[in-house]
Amino acid sequence: MEALGIDLKLLIAQIVNFSIVMLLLWKFAYTPILKMLTDRKEKIEKGIKDAEESAKALAKAEDEAKVIRDKAFKEADEILKNAKSAATAEAGAIVKKANDQAERTISSAKAESDQAKANVMKDAKKEISDIVVIALSKIVGNEFSEEEKKKLTSRAISEL
Prior knowledge:
Shape: rod-shaped
Helix content: over 70%
Radius of gyration: 62 Å
Number of domains: 1
Structural class: mainly alpha
Number of strands: 0
Order of helices and strands: HH
Largest sheet: none
C-alpha cells in the first residue's frame, strides 16, 4: 500500500480517531440533538392536538351557548305571554269588580230612593188623612158616627 502512498499506521490512526470522534459526536451531540428534536416534535404534536381539542371545545361551547340563549329567549317570551295574559285577566277582574261595585252602589241608591219615596208617601198619607179627618169633622160635624168617619177617611186615603 505504500506504493499507492498510503501509510497503514496513519490510516489506522485516522480510522481510530474518526471512530472516536464519531462515538463522541454520537454520544454528546447526535443523541441529545435527536432527543431534543423528538421532544420538540412531541410538544408540537401535543400543541396541535390541544389546539384541535380547544377548537372542538369552543365549537361545542358556542353550540351550548346558542342552545341556552335560545332557551332563555323562549322562556322570556313565555314569561311575557304569561305576564300579558295575567295582566289582561287581572284587568278584566278589576273591571268586573268595578262594574259589580257600581251596580251594588246603584242598587243601594235605588233601594234608598224607593225607601225614601215610600216614607214620604207614608208621611204624606198620614198628614192627608189627618187633614181629611179635621176637614170632615168641620164639614160634617157630629152628623156621622166615629165609625162612618173612619170609613170615609180610609176610602179617601185609599183613593190617593
